[in-house]
Amino acid sequence: MIDLLDDARWRLARTDAGSVLDPGDLPADLDWIDAEVPGTVASALGGSLSAVNPDDHDWWFVADVSTADHRRVRVTFGGIATRAQIWIDGDHRRTVTSMFVPEIVDVTECGPTVRIALHVESLVAQLKSRRPRGRWRSSLIAAQGLRHERTTMLGRAPVYGPLPIAVGPWRPVSMTPIPDIRRSELSTAVSGTDGIVVLRAELGSPGVARILIDDNMSSVHTVELGTVAHIDSTLTLPDVELWWPHTHGRPRTYRVALEIDGTVHRMGVVGFRTVELDRTAGGAQLVVNGEDVFCRGGTWTPLNPVRLWSSEADLRAALEQLRSAGLNMVRVVGTLVYEQPEFWSLCAELGIMVWQDLMFGTVDPPTDETFTASVARELDAFADAVSANPALMVVSGGSETQQQPTMLGLAAEDQRMAMLDSVVPDFLTDRLPAVAYVTSSPSSVQGELHTHVGDGIAHYFGVGGYLRPLSDIRTAGVRFAAECLAFAVPPERSSVEKFFGSAAVAGHHPEWKTAVPRDRGSSWDFEDVRDHYVRNIFGVDPHLIRRDDAELYLDYGRAATVEAFTEAFGHWRRASSGCAGALVLTLRDTVPGAGWGIVDIAGVPKAPFYALARASAPMALLLSDNGLDGYSVELVNDGPARTGTVRVVLHASRGSHEFEQSVKVGTNSSVALTVDSIVGTFTDVNHAYRFGARTYSAVTAAFLDDSGVEVTRTTVLVGPQTRQNTVGLSAEVTETGSGTWELTVRSEWPAQYVCVDIDDFQVSDSWFHLAPNEPRTLTLVGSGAGAPRGHVRALNSVERAAVAPKVVSGLGHGLNS
After folding, report:
1. Could you tell me the maximum CA-CA distance found in the chain, to the nearest angstrom?
2. pLDDT tens digits for 446-464?
3. Burial class (CB in 10 A: 0-12, 13-18, 19+), 94
4. CA pseudo-torsion sign 470, 472, 475, 478
5. Ramachandran angles phi, psi of 279, nearest 5°
6. What is the spatial distance between Cα 581 and Cα 442, in angstroms, rounded to a whole number?
7. SS3 sequence, 486-544?
8. What was the pLDDT predicted at 759?
9. What was the pLDDT predicted at 396?
10. Which parts of the chain sit beneath pLDDT 50?
């Protein structure tokens, strides 16, 4: 469809709050700058924003549009943050009170040129008006009046980093001829082996219509409707292929279109699946298509937290990165923003499940009719965007909406919110019946406090902010962690150099510290948390190390987060843990530096990304130290049943010993073994009994399929490791074509937390343990035409192995290591 605003030039100007109320009164001497729409004041001002708080001022976005031969047009404003007035050709057309509600204005008579003016009003001025106070104060934000505003907390909650406040048309503005289809609504259901599609639509005028459903393969299902003005039709597709999260099957989708008088209008992509949240005995097990699914992933943050809009290519790259790591769920948090349409279509295509918080967080939502009506419009807009999208699994009433009053000591009856108890669930029953609902994240199931991590939906930071030992992961009894494991995770060395020049800034420099997450009002930050675990896991003083070697200080911090992630997900994914899912806080940083993200702001994985990927693979081996019972081995399988061999290698000072056991693991199931059972005798491989000197230095477990191909492998090192001059690291690289290389890493002695650090290449694994004389072959994928160049290092070794290309006469590229 033609969009007359495609090439429009938007201009932006600032005025004092309340000084200009009509675009006709704008002073002639205003300073105008070009602005990108969708975008924000911050994205337009760029570096000149530092001295300006966007909430303090009024802002005007203006565009002149040529309508050509179109005299009847529809102007759609996808979202304006936050309070605004819409003017079209000097006429006031709409008042905006929520950044989460689209506004649609039909212009039935217009001239050859139309001027659109958006007057975005100062929120600071709005917050000065006296309005009813909430029953409790939010600890996340300073301006408690924000409880009355439907806006994001990005930029207003310091915990998300030094981000600017979102002001302006953050979602697209379009001008199109008034369409034949005024409103449409899709929904799907599953009945036995059949898929049910329901399409409702209102046409601008009666027309000959038919529904088209394309199965993306060879056939198109049609329903002839005749001449109609309103459509309320149901189509049954026999023997549909269900949509699955990518870890458990194929994410099958179908395309739906509506043909009116010969013109085809795309309605969207749908999928067929069933979903249930089993809350039995205090649990929270997501059941998809009748199968239990272990949900792993993290909380989503906007890829561009300033503009709040990303290209489809950038979104695809970010989501494919998560998919390649075996992650199958993202949670859109209730203090941020709803995501753009491309995010949803890509999640459906890639088989990534979405947990969607409604945009409520820590505040007491008002109960007046105006606020409730605004939320109802918001929910309708959300349903219009996601209905029939199979990726949507869970809707939550917000982030910490119930936890906040619980932590402040309010009685249960004083915490009740009509918004969560009736308004939202009644809406979901009507518009989104095929999704699970939880009142908030976190929330209790069995009447326990909403802060208790062993009941229902938890935010688990026992390991993390509350400095509990790693053993707390096994004793806490987490059933589902919708947030967990928050650390100030340092980026990789090349990213630190790119962002800050060197590691010398780490831990103390103001530029570094501004990116480190800190709870509002706390006397500590999450770098203090990371340092605590470095001290307790490795027995070193991180502050003394930082004085002498800032790079090593950060490496210890990276390794500590890997240790925590490995312990947590290695336990939670076991069938015996009782845990049905865990989502880390967060997937991606919002600013350069040591943020919560397991991926930095530029999209480069950080150390715990690899630990999470190893534990999240659809088929994974989990090795765990069970004290006097030795090491346990659990083979976890999300896919169809498989047979093969579990091979265990025990590495001793005088060589290694290899043992095998045939196994069969069922569909979406696991097999639990012990090293002793595979060996067939008592080994004390973990040196728990301490009979004499330690016998073994490392244990490797691998699963090989029936053809002898290794599917997955994991290695643990036995006992504490001491840092030494060398562990005999070496590396060899071989080009395999099309910008892909293979890197084989070896060590003569146990190598602790081997890091592969190669510029401009993505590595298939890093931050892993390496057993003596047991090579690991990794894949390197380059973004340029050059050969790999960098190094491989280990935490317990001063010496590192260089990776650099060299030319061997007549042979082309080789390796200099």
Report:
1. 93
2. 877 899 999 999 999 999 9
3. middle
4. negative
5. -100, 20
6. 13
7. CCCCCCCHHHHHHHHCCHHHCCCCHHHHCCCCCCCCCCCCHHHHHHHHHHHHHCCCHHH
8. 87
9. 97
10. 806-817
